Amino acid sequence: MTTLAVTRGKAYFRLAKLDIVDYYLGVIVVWTLLAPVTRFDPGVLLTIGVFLLGEVFVIAAMVALDDLTGYRDGSDITNYSPDDPKRKRYRKPLVAGTLDEDQVLRFAWVTGVIGAVLWFGAVVIAPHGPLWTVVLIVGTYFFSLQYSWGVKLSYHGFQEFFIAALGWALVLAPYGLATGEFTGLALAEALLFGLGPLLFGVYSNTNDVDGDRRVGRPTVAALTSPRGNMFFVVAVSAAEFALILAVPTLGGPWWFPLTLLPTIVARIRQVWLGFALGDIMRARMLGIRIHRITVLSLVVVNLVVIT
Question: Which residue ranges does UniProt annotate as crossing the membrane (predicted)?
């Protein structure tokens, strides 16, 4: 393999953000939510596997289009400026110059089509196919590609909601295909899962506020004052805490909040790091770890409770 091919492969890997696995962890939560007799059913495993593979391609298309739009409007060039040591330019192939616009656009369309085929295949082979699940999958696919392209949802005030909603959908959709059910516990865990990416995304938005304001991308951080943005992040963190306390009423065990105690404590530290100490990017990195701790906690709860 030539040096050029290796370099190009790394650029596409970074374009697809394949090192950020946090949305993909949802299938682990789904698998542990299943009854033990169902977890190793060949049809269920195949369905979840095909859905996960489709998810990888759909998200790759989404983030590629997001990079293309961010490059064209100048926000990525501002946010990933050479003199900003907190943001790594090589993670944005267009900004770094390792890919051009045509290559990124072709990649987005190819991965988008493959993702659509795989999700269609998952629906066809799934043990169950309730209408709500099919509609959820179709809607998730459509709005993922419209996140920063086409209607540009993230440029019309829907960015924060979409980041969370994508996580909710990526738990509920495969769960529906595997079980045909919609349970309170599955809903609660999907909501908690979706809040994870949101609660490191809002710290990225806080750091990127200048670039987003310059191009008119209306994130909460860009629309409000620093104090208003802080209150928003604190409110979302508090909503996560309230949801954790409510899970026992939605079908979870009474000790569920105790299991999520590491998430609660770490979330308080995240807010302190970001807004008391002003270390936004360190708080963002902590948010990624908190999300993974939460996923681990959900998995442990499910393996203990669902027997």
Answer: 21-38, 44-65, 107-125, 131-149, 161-178, 184-204, 230-248, 290-306
Q: Return the closest-CA partner of residue 214 out of 77, 87, 66.
A: 77
Q: How many CB atoms lie within 10 A of CB 245?
A: 13
**Count of alpha carbons within 13 Å of 303, Cβ hemisphere only?**
9
**Domain boundaries, given as residue ranges, for the chain:** 20-305
> In degrees rounded to 5, what are phi and psi of residue 147?
-60, -50
What are the φ/ψ torsions at residue 162 (nearest 5 degrees)? -65, -40
What span, in angstroms and rounded, lies between the C-alpha atoms of 229 and 220? 6
The neighbour count for residue 296, using CB atoms within 10 Å, is 16
At residue 31, what is the residue type?
Answer: W
> At 44, phi and psi to the nearest 5?
-65, -45
Amino acid letter, 147: Y
Convert the pLDDT of each residue in 2-53 to its tens digit: 776 777 889 999 999 998 899 999 999 999 999 999 999 999 999 999 999 9
Structural contact between residues 205 and 219, judged by C-beta atoms closer than 8 angstroms:
yes
- Work out the pLDDT band at 97, boundaries 50, 70, 90: confident
Residue type, 300: V
Q: How far apart are CA 267 and CA 285, in angstroms?
A: 12
Torsion of Cα atoms, 251 then 255 then 257 then 263, to 10°:
-120
Residue with more model confidence, 158 or 292: 292
Angle 2-3-4 (CA atoms, 0-180°, nearest 5)?
90
C-alpha distances (whole Å) from 57 to each of 81, 178, 306 are 28, 21, 31
Helices marked H in the chain — which ranges? 3-15, 26-33, 36-39, 42-73, 75-79, 93-96, 101-125, 131-145, 159-179, 184-207, 209-215, 220-223, 226-246, 256-259, 261-271, 280-305
* Tens-place pLDDT, residues 64-88: 999 999 888 887 777 775 545 555 6
